Amino acid sequence: MSASIAVVGAGPTGTCLVERICANAADLLGWPSLDVHVIDPHPPGGGRVWRRDQPELLWMNSAAADVTLFTDESVRCEGPIRPGPTLAEWLGGDPGTFASRPAQNGYLSHVFRHAVETAPRGVRVHVHPARAVDLADIPDGQAVRLEDGRTIEVDAVILAQGHGDVTPNGEERALADLAVRGGLRYLPTGYAADLDLDGIPAGEPVIVRGMGLAFVDLMVLLTSGRGGRFVREYDGELVYLPGGREPLLHVGSRRGVPYHSKTGYPFGGARPPVPRFLTREALGEGPWNFRRDVWPLVAKELAFAYYHELLTAHPERARLDWAAFAEAFADEEWRSPGIRKLIRTAVPRHLDRLDLDRLDRPLAGIRFGDRAGLQKWMHGYLAADLERRADPAHSADHALILGLISVYGVLAELGVSDPWFHGFFSYIASGPPGPRLEELRALARAGVVTFLGADLKVDHHDGRWRAQSPTVPGGVTATTLVEARLPAPSVSRATDPLIGALRDRGELDEKSGLVNVRAADRRLVDRSGTPHSRRFAFGPWVVGGQATGGFARPRLNAPLFRHADALARIVLSEAVGTQIRRHVA
């Protein structure tokens, strides 16, 4: 009797699960006769988001050396370690390069093929290029219905669709209605590669709300993607030569500044000794208020990581050695007078001290008399960010990023999520490659991009969109408004037909916009709070799965691998192994 598992979703999340299922099958099933059904309308490996048919102009936001989908010796999991190349090793190029999205698709396709080709004897992987639209209980299993009318019967199902689309929220619907009635253009949230940008007119002002990674993609497609070119002047300055078809982008956001660029130097320091303070014991019993209960411990972890690198790698800029600092630091509460005094004593230069508030909101409290003053400040801000992120003298910034990654994983395992912290994490640790910010600076000097400031508000006034910010007086108007943001997770507004069917019947529950699962084993929880014995969910849209989004960094014991391995073993030993033992008996 063959056991069977359905994995719904063939992107990076589903691919990692398939690899872990194959890797663990022989150990847990004894005599593996297992069919793994992978269901996705897009080719396996890249899935929809990382599909091949995207412009080469769109890059990954991580250096090739920092991307892997193979386990390594750092991963602490029960299953076997199956090493493989990082993206940089697979490409055979510069480890610091930022690969194109189509190139990443090739790597992900390779990982999927490798998992299938190296699966133990008796394990068969079947790819179904179709969408799963419903799921039903049957005796001793599950029936997955596909959009082409076929039904696949399996012992267990894992939902691994990754980032999904949602219907517009109330504000977006209202803006879309205003656009239709007033003859305006409005592009809601979404992946830039999926948006229809042809309707954005050349030479006209366009209001863009959002300055994260979605904005960077939009910026590239509307400038280089329309025939513009970047050239390097004799003094090394990057200059933009317009192609004549680009719009005039007026951009702002809550912070009013773009995400920090990736560090552009190899990090040679020791990994920060975190987490140390952020523990379940320190948090106590929930529920927790993030800013009151969790953030002080998170901030202390981040500062510990930052100052560990500063004092050990750059001791000439400190008045205390690390051992003395660490001992005193551990005894103090975050934001206490004692910890502030310790930092002032240990780190004489204000430039070397970590100011998390200023880092989060660099424009807070700043007002300019006119738009020109803001543009001048932004040019200096971007230049300083590029210079600092390229200088290993500021390697404490890289240690802060590593601390953020560690903390993010701990919070996911504790089941703690917070939208503000996710945004802060992305802003510091998931920014664009340095060259992209250099291009943004060149576009601003060329007048193609104009910065609007922080706390941007957009409304409808005199038949046009109007954008205003308290950072600078006045405002701008345009006939086109673009939301340069990805949609926030929302089970209630998900367009995925399978999620919708389960949700509408109450067989799937939502928690803070995410698919609710039982933390111990990721079993799908219905609206009554009851976990299902044969249904599981995994990935960034799942409670506790935020740290499994994106790609793993090599040699950092990535949560993606640990969690995928644990889930694969649970499904094989409990949902599937029980079925095999019943048939054998």
From TrEMBL:
It comes from the Bacteria. PANTHER family: BLR0577 PROTEIN. This is FAD/NAD(P)-binding protein. It comes from Streptosporangium amethystogenes subsp. fukuiense. Residues 6-163 form the FAD-dependent urate hydroxylase HpyO/Asp monooxygenase CreE-like FAD/NAD(P)-binding domain. The lineage of its organism: Bacteria, Bacillati, Actinomycetota, Actinomycetes, Streptosporangiales.
